[in-house]
Amino acid sequence: MEYNTQLPKMIIPEYGRNIQGMIEYCCTIKDRDERNLCARAIIQVMGQLNPHLRDVADFTHKLWDHLFIISEFKLDVDSPYPKPSPETFKEKPERLTYPSGKIRYKHYGKSIEKIIEQAKKLKDGPEKDELTRHIANHLKKSYLNWNKDSITDDVIFKNLQELSGGELKMDETAVLSSHQELRGNNNNNKPRHKFQNNKHKHKHNKHHRKH
Hints:
By secondary structure, the chain is an all-alpha fold. The chain is built from eight helices and no strands.
């Protein structure tokens, strides 16, 4: 019995050892036309084994690149795309640049700060007031996601005013969504109450029939 540890290393394990064996055989075919036919057949099988790649841009191009990679760039066939070179895949990716700037409240995140900046540009009126209310609810929900302790609306209003530089304000009498609503617990409670009411009604009818 052969063990995987005794077999040649898999170049791209996702395609399996059979595909790698087909490609190795294809490399040994001397007739170019026959070798081209074999390569195209392998490409079709590779596509069937990896249907998730169909959502990737340039799906067929990706399969041909994988074909050459698995052959360790030894396969000489007529590809509909430029044949990649080993150097292409040895290049190190560019270093990602991370967002700069300090986040005032980490539990609120950086994205909400950008939304607040856009809200500040709106003219005073119902649209700006409604967006401000949504932002305040989002701040409250973000706080509850990261902190187990509850928070009062006046603290949220204060944080909103600080994040917006005093340009977005909420009426002190305004009421934000409750903790249960923001955490989505209110919908889970309703079916249980309904079940309990039906159960109570069933017991009452049963008791009434006995009498």
